[in-house]
TrEMBL record:
<comment type="similarity">
    <text>Belongs to the class-I pyridoxal-phosphate-dependent aminotransferase family.</text>
</comment>
<dbReference type="InterPro" id="IPR015422">
    <property type="entry name" value="PyrdxlP-dep_Trfase_small"/>
</dbReference>
<dbReference type="GO" id="GO:0030170">
    <property type="term" value="F:pyridoxal phosphate binding"/>
</dbReference>
<dbReference type="InterPro" id="IPR004838">
    <property type="entry name" value="NHTrfase_class1_PyrdxlP-BS"/>
</dbReference>
<dbReference type="GO" id="GO:0016847">
    <property type="term" value="F:1-aminocyclopropane-1-carboxylate synthase activity"/>
</dbReference>
<feature type="domain" description="Aminotransferase class I/classII large">
    <location>
        <begin position="55"/>
        <end position="435"/>
    </location>
</feature>
<dbReference type="InterPro" id="IPR004839">
    <property type="entry name" value="Aminotransferase_I/II_large"/>
</dbReference>
<keyword id="KW-0663">Pyridoxal phosphate</keyword>
<dbReference type="InterPro" id="IPR015424">
    <property type="entry name" value="PyrdxlP-dep_Trfase"/>
</dbReference>
<dbReference type="GO" id="GO:0008483">
    <property type="term" value="F:transaminase activity"/>
</dbReference>
<dbReference type="InterPro" id="IPR015421">
    <property type="entry name" value="PyrdxlP-dep_Trfase_major"/>
</dbReference>
<dbReference type="InterPro" id="IPR050478">
    <property type="entry name" value="Ethylene_sulfur-biosynth"/>
</dbReference>
<protein>
    <recommendedName>
        <fullName>Aminotransferase class I/classII large domain-containing protein</fullName>
    </recommendedName>
</protein>
<dbReference type="Pfam" id="PF00155">
    <property type="entry name" value="Aminotran_1_2"/>
</dbReference>
Amino acid sequence: TLNRIYKLMSHHQNASLLSKLAFGDKHGEASPYFDGWKAYDKNPYHPTHNPQGVIQMGLAENQLCSDLIKDWIKENPHASICTAEGIDSFSDIAVFQDYHGLKLFTQVIAAFMERARGGRARFEAERVVMSGGATGANETLMFCLADPGDAFLVPTPYYAAFDRDLRWRTGIRIVPVECNSSNNFQITKQALDSTYLTAQETGIPIKGLILANPSNPLGTTVHRETLETIVNFINDKQIHLVCDEIYAATVFTEPGFISVAEIIQEMDHVNRDLIHIVYSLSKDMGLPGFRVGVVYSYNDAVVSCARKMSSFGLVSSQTQSFLAAMLSDQRFVDNFLVEVSKRVAKRHRIFTGGLKEIGISCLRSNAGLFVLMDLRPMLRDQTFESEMALWLVIIDKVKINVSPGSSFHCSEPGWFRVCFANMDEDTLQTGLERIKDFVVGDEAYKKCKCICNNKKENKRRKNFQKNLKLSFSSMIYDEHVRSPKLMSPHSPLLRI
């Protein structure tokens, strides 16, 4: 009782002593998207040390090509100032660098952005502004483009942490543009016009549109005609367009990726001051820990303001120096971009093929490090309450961290984002086996030649599936089931 009284007193004291930002709950972590992280943090899977742990399939991380980077490092020890071969550059790099970043680094970043887009668009090094990952880049643009209370249109489903990245400290608002599965969740002119008009009628000032291309969580690229429609739309309304293109090179099949930079090069009478691009090396290069984000704006005033703001999230000069050396190696970069596409394609094929064998389909995708898995047939009814109940079973019983579509503001219940590139192939197969256990049981395993011949193992599988079904049945009929209010210590720093 005394502890409860003390906590209440402390709560009220903090409310008066701290800022609204520090004491508020608008960070966005009270979401199943981050709750799954907490479940994994508490009980992480390991093939030998903790084989019954939670498998992390909620992290959109590219670990498929790290061997290529390691090999390059071994062959180029001079690239690091922390080696005997590179120590002579230590004094030059360790001292203060201005907000523009190292000149060579901005040059190779511009060149890399061109190669990642097939050389079809040109980028100027002078417009490259550094930031602490794409998270920082997106927030920087919000500070530059809008005031608290202003709003941005965002097609659904959209990246779950946009609610944090775009809104938490800036005070801007997000107005969802509802898309649905009937056309693969592609944005339409009708949806844009309708949402914009409604916002105008309700007094919400729309400052721009934010588009993730390729999409997270859809894993799809935006068609050329749709991009042209969007550019015409924002040009007509004289509002900004922010294109988050962090998966530009993580495209593995047709249709390919088309950057907004390519589109505006081909279109006449476009106000380029309204066009801005966010990029990073986190996904395409698999370097999220390096925290390299990029603001690329065609608006001179935005470039100037963003550069001043970059003082709050500069990329380490050591990181810039190392990456400048690596990205200057055109042979390495060209081989890396080809190889990453091949490896992501293979992993996508393995995972979706395994799901297809047990009757689970996914949204047709061609990019990204994840798929949108369709579990609508498994819902008791087509409600988000049923989706949440199913998700809790997947986390607690199947022990896989996946992200429910509702955390991405999906308009239809039953879709789940599953990541497949942040683990080795054995762990991926273990994840698939757990899903198969849950969905179909022993008979399907026999058909798929995945069943163990050991009778004891067969009995264990049957009991496992029976327990899962019982757990699921008891949970989906509980109308009060809600996601536990958990917070992962990792999530504020990761663009998951």
